[in-house]
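REVIEWER CHECKLIST
Item 1: Sequence provided? yes
Item 2: Single chain? yes
Item 3: Sequence as submitted:
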Amino acid sequence: MAKLDAGSTLKRLRNRYRLVVMNDDTYEEVVTFKLSRLSVYIALSTIFVLLVGLTVALIIFTPLKYYIPGNDLTVGREYRELKYNADKLEKELNNLKQYEEGLRKGPLLGDKPATLDTVQLQLPKEDLSDD
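Item 4: Structure as written out by the authors:
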């Protein structure tokens, strides 16, 4: 087997070919393309990359991701709900602790006796003669 050197391979990629589309009945040339192997390779590679990119974008940015097997998104939703409930219960527990401490410091359960507020309020007298 003969070895292929880089120069001959590059020359073969750059060789120009003509693609002619002809009418079968009249043998009239409808379209003519001048192509090389390199241009065909680049065009097909570009189309492949674009199709893969569009497919990935379609799956990521639309609800189609919910239909992929093994992609269980309900776990994340359940985790967020559990975290929210745990935070809510922790806040409620802190409120109950503050309430209990207030009761302990207050006159009901506290060590010191309750002192009554004996200050008399000075309310202004209403003038009833305007009626």
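Item 5: Key structural point noted by reviewer: Residues 74-105 form the longest helix (32 residues).
Item 6: Recommendation: ____
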